[in-house]
Amino acid sequence: PEGKGTCIADSDKISYWYKWNGKDGVKFVKYEQHKRNPEQEPSDSAVLTELTAKLESKDLLAARKYLQDNLSKLTKKDAAAALDTYERKLQQLIPSFDTAIQGLQEKYLQDPKNNILNKYELTINDLNDIERLQQKDFLKDAKDLKDLLIKARQLGLEAQTAEGIYFFAVDYNYLLTGFQDEITNELTSWYQILADYYNKPAMKDAALVVSLDEIAKRIVAMEEFQFTFPYSKYNNKLSRMRSEERRVGKECRSRWS
Q1: Backbone angles phi, psi at 252, to 5 degrees
Q2: What contacts 184, CB < 8 A, 6 or more positions away?
Q3: 144-154 pLDDT, tens per residue?
Q4: Is the separation of the CB atoms in 127 and 161 below 8 Å?
């Protein structure tokens, strides 16, 4: 799945080993790689050391920029590991960003039943449009809200809303920007699945907001990922996500039948 060969005869190969479960299925056991193409040059050790230090610091924007600027000095595997670490750091920031935006919502509106979009006549896309956010007159009477939204977008978070409550989620499409051809196929495929699941959820405010065909396509993509990368550390989480998408699809079919 990570090979560079341009045809079957010349490409890298991988063997998967499975064990029969004694019933009607198999369990993945291990895999072996058979490389025909030379390995990529190892990562620059000094760059790896500096990158690790930046990812452990509080300045994640600097860490992301350093990673982007030094991709040519990193293997795809090391670049993917660094981006995955960055994503975990973003997840840790979300609670503080959620608290901040919910506090600002109360500050500017007083009435918790109202919401930011109505007050400023905006759409949720406006809150995630970095060019719009940086316009001089945009949210000029709510600078602290504007600064929060700009920082969130620069880091790779997007604002979402459900039932009048605002919160943040990692924007996986944004994370892939500038990295898609520089990281492993496994991480690229994983983030594409997460982008659909979290950034375009099937359900919102107890209503289905994507088509059943779209849910079916997502389930197929998840199954293809597990078939292609049976060794992936993401597969346990992916199985839970797939079960949830199936549940949503089944419930909606039952309502409409």
Answers
A1: -70, -40
A2: 2, 76, 77, 80
A3: 999 999 999 99
A4: no
